[in-house]
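Subject: complex prediction, re-run

Hi both,

The earlier run crashed halfway through, so I resubmitted it with identical inputs.
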Amino acid sequence: MYIFMNQKDYLKQQHRKNFITGILFLTPTLVIFSMFILFPVLFSFFLSFHKWNMFSSSQSFIGFANYQRLLTDPEFWQVLKQTIMYTLGTVPLNMVIALFLAMMLNKKIKGKSFLRTAFFTPVIISPVAAALIWRWIYDPNFGLLNYATGLFGIPPVNWLNDSRAAMAALIIMGVWKTLGINMVLFSAGLQGIPDTYYEAAEMDGAGRWSKFWNITLPMLTPTTFFIMIMSMISSFQVFDIVYVLTSGGPMGSTKVMVFYMYEYAFKFFEMGYASAVAYIFFAMLAILTLLQVKYMRTRSGYEGI
Amino acid sequence: MKKFLTVLLVGCILFTACDRKQKQSENGVVTITFWHSFVASTILALEDLISQFEKEHPGIKINAQYVPTGDALIQKLITAIQSKTAPDISWIHSDFLADLVDADAIYEMAHFINGENGLSQEELSDIYPALMQYASLRKKIYSIPMEATNLALIYNKDLLRKAGYDAERPPQTWEELKEYALTLSEDYNHDGNYDQIGFFVPVYPASGPLSGWMMWQWVPYLWQAGGYIVNEAQTKVLYNSEAGVQALTLWKEIYNSLNLSSFTVDYDVAFASQRVAMSMDGPWNLPRFNKIMKNIDWAFAPLPEGPKKRATVVGGEYLVIFKQSPHPDESWAFIKWIIRPDVQARWAMKSGYLPVRQSVKSIPEFARYLEENPNFKVFVDQMEVAQAQRPLDNFGLQITRHIAEAIEAATLGGMDPQEALNRSAQKSNKLLKSVQNNK
Amino acid sequence: MANNNVKLQKLTKSILMHGVIYLLAFITIAPFIWMILTSLKDISDIFVYPPKWFPDKIQWNNYARAFQAAPFGRYYLNSIFVAVTVTLGQLITCSMAAYAFARLKFWGRDVLFYIFLGTMMIPYQVTMIPSFMVLHWLGWIDSYQAMIVPGLASAFGTFLLRQFFLTIPKELEEAAYIDGCSKFRVLWQIILPLSKPALATLAIFTFMGTFNDFIWALIVVNSEHLRTVQLGLAVFRDRYITDWDLLMAGSVMATLPILIVFFFAQKYFIKGITLSGIKG
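This time it finished cleanly. Structure:
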């Protein structure tokens, strides 16, 4: 291959080729994305300024009324607080345990396939079946959990009927249910770190902690970023397990954002209001994500973000 | 790998090619689509009903489609109406009757009742008035009940006998209910928690799927104390009156004395394990209970009498006809046929639901069935004192939610009943006032 | 002497490590074991309080009865067909899009990517009705396309693969470009083989998500012959009545295909590259 144009033209040509190829590669995703993801998202934004009971074919424009209403609804703020509590309770715990497990399973352990599958089973079980099982685990009189804590002399806790314990109960079940996802993701990320890095470090006399801190963690940054964002989004959006385990109770103490939104959409038939809730929520999540991106960029400066 | 993909691709094509769509309408025969949520055990009775109808009406076929109840039904109806693929007839719950009416999605039944193939005034008033109240909104009838239910007391005769009571005489008044509840509760292992509960007070999270079920079971006690949910003009709620406080206090007292917050919420499981002596339920569980509780001597009884009167609450499934339906008259023919007394008798005996017409009791076959099935008879007899929640023209769902919150707060939350009811009434009245202001 | 001590230390550590992990695994899997045991119980064994672990008599026919309560054979075929198609489709579309986002520099790339991310922050409960409307306008209600096509694009999948592609050293691709490979060949023959763990991960999640989906299938499907397993299971669960024995049997049956896919996908969790392949 002989290059018969000067460098500037060559680069321009490459740029154009890149652009075209980029578009081509993106087209299938973009087409479907625009129709089934982007459009509904934008339509929901449109809906947030209207009143719509969903059975009728027309919506009535009400401007910012929905937003005003939700910002002055004390329940909205309580729900927000509870959602943040849930997220703070599950995400760090989840990530730490998942990383620990993924690293353990990366080493010489017998029965890796069985173990990985075992940790993944909670993810697969339907929320309904899982909630039934956990309701029995949390039973104040005969549940496994109170039985186990009783062995250590701890008095029985009224897990699902006490406002304070209920949130803890939800967090425990939440971590159990989603642990496997992050474990699998961390495992995939760990596979991408070449052994030669570790071998080189060992030859330089690096200890286990140093290897973890200087090789594993930095190389995991794109994966960790992904996991942190996804965990945050999904725990902010938790719904299924709340719906079947506590139904927002007792007395609304475990009501989370999407549950509140769902009620207004499908129980009180106010889709416009529900859309407004979704968008306020979106704004908060977006800001949080941007902050995380900034933080991770300054810390590791890694391009993986 | 490549081979595998080709096989997969070919398989997919073949698979979709074999996909045959059902024909909807054939020559001359009209097919009515009917959405219902009858569970597996009742479907046999439904099929019997449908085949009987089709035999008497050769030109009409009924295509019954199962839709999961609750939220799923709502979501399906929404999407169906929006995509103009609504069924001809569907079950609905009074929850969203108002929204369907506001969206102009269903027919006003007067259109058919006063039409050619209509109902006479006698026939209309033969339907239990409480049921028709549920079926109406703003004084207009929008649905027709297909079958009825109400609430009764279920109790374990063995446990009553063990405690020294007459097994044929369950509690008759509120005082007796409280007394029996306490006597029938036992703490076997002396750990401070009751292992056997005398009476199960159904308290559930107000924001959960069983919130309506909890409310439905409390409302008879409100009525028994002489109270009402809302005033006639629907400008103010009345559930925080003296009657309401009495009813809620009854629940609170039993709930607290039995320490029910540390008990399981699966009352039917607990009852079947003989850990609950008395509870409340509707007739729909009769077939199931007959099967799984064979080793227990149990029976249904009317709800105890309150300070002012006897009362229970009605429920049932209601049918509506959608305006999008291409065959409204045939749909109406099906509904009109279902409420015929002899059809109701046969349907009731097969399904375990209650008939909607009062004259059904005088059909000899049915009367005999009642004698042979005393538990079922309890429910049918209770229809005499059964009331319906007065349908709220506006904000019905929110007000129901407020009442549920009060119940949860007073029992589980330990709040004073008057305070809890007042707090909820404040919220409800605010909504009702906004309706007044917009008039 | 010292050698034996070190060996003993290592052995103890190994036993401890295995012990802790296996204990955690059994605790995690206990609810699932419960589900399987319950699916084999007679209804009278389920209706007891306090709940008991083992069935008095194993009821294999719970599975037979569950299978007969609705045309589950057809439902299974539908669920698997839809899940497999969507999984393969997503692997293709997401890897192409992810490669574009990871490696190709074009105007508006990062903004577009953040829009992708942003859409994941809106809960599906509010977007599912508008999505349904789009399907309706296309005339696809009550068809296989309705269950498959919307799932062919995924912000999640694109995001996941993009992160993974970013960890692959650029030198490999640059070498290929100098040799004159097209972008497509680079993706197909270099990037993808190195991304097996990520692809396997995405395959698992997509298969599972599609197989377990209930709400979307509920609203876009009416006809009996299109229904999926999750829709079928709903018949065991009423507002007040639940056929627990059949529901558990059905749920175990619904979980098995995913477990099988997961078990096999695990063998792709192998180390991707060794740097020594690049130098020299």
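Residues 2-61 of chain C form one domain.

- K.
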